[in-house]
Design brief:
The chain is 13% helix and 43% strand. The chain is mainly beta and 166 residues long. A hairpin with a 5-residue loop joins strand 10 and strand 11.
Length: 166
C-alpha cells in the first residue's frame, strides 16, 4: 500500500484476538478481510505511540490503518494493546547505579520500572538519541531499546554518571 492508497479502518469494524493456544494475533475486519497471522505496527512509535496502528500480514503487506484503539470492543482493544506492548516494550530507566567503560563499550547497571537491569552500549553517539528535550533512547549491543523519559527526573548520582557521556 503506498501513501496515496493508505486506508483508514473504522475501529468498530475490527475484531482482534489470540486464538486459543496461539501466540499470533488474528484480525478480522467485518465483511472485508481476515488476517490469521496479523502484524500490528505503529506508524509513529515515538511521537504518536497511541495512534496510527498499521495492520499487515506476515509478508508485510499493509491492509489498513487504525487511527486509534478508541471505539474497539474491549477484547479486541486488549489484544492489540498486548501485541503492541510486546513489539515496542522499552524499559524506562529510573536510576543509573553504575556506568563504566570497558573494552570500548559502556556497561550500564540501571533500575527500570521492571527492576534492575544491566546492558552494554558500543559507540554511544551512534546508539543514543535525544528524541525530545531531556528524553533519551539508547540501543544496546544486542538491539534492545531503553529509554530515559526525563533527565531532570533522575537522581543526582545518575546525572553525575551520565555526564561522562553527554
Amino acid at each position: 500500500m503506498s501513501f496515496e492508497e493508505a486506508r483508514y479502518l473504522d475501529p468498530a469494524t475490527v475484531r482482534a484476538w489470540f486464538p486459543e493456544g496461539s501466540a499470533r494475533l488474528r484480525v478480522e475486519v467485518k465483511d472485508e478481510f481476515c488476517l490469521p497471522r496479523a502484524v500490528a505496527k505503529l506508524a509513529f512509535p515515538l511521537s504518536h505511540p497511541d495512534s496510527h496502528i498499521v495492520l499487515m500480514d506476515v509478508e508485510n503487506k499493509e491492509y489498513g490503518i487504525l487511527p486509534s484503539l478508541e471505539g474497539m470492543d474491549p477484547e479486541s482493544r486488549a489484544a492489540l494493546q498486548k501485541e503492541l506492548d510486546r513489539r515496542y516494550f522499552t524499559p524506562k530507566i529510573l536510576a543509573i547505579r553504575e556506568l563504566k567503560q570497558d573494552g570500548g563499550m559502556w556497561r550500564f547497571r540501571v533500575v527500570t520500572q521492571r527492576g534492575p537491569s544491566e546492558f552494554w552500549v558500543r559507540h554511544w553517539r551512534d546508539n543514543s538519541a535525544e528524541i525530545q528535550p531531556g528524553r533519551w533512547q539508547i540501543q544496546t549491543v544486542d538491539g534492545q531499546r531503553y529509554e530515559i523519559p526525563a533527565l531532570d527526573a533522575l537522581d543526582p548520582k545518575s546525572l553525575r554518571l551520565l555526564e561522562q557521556l553527554l
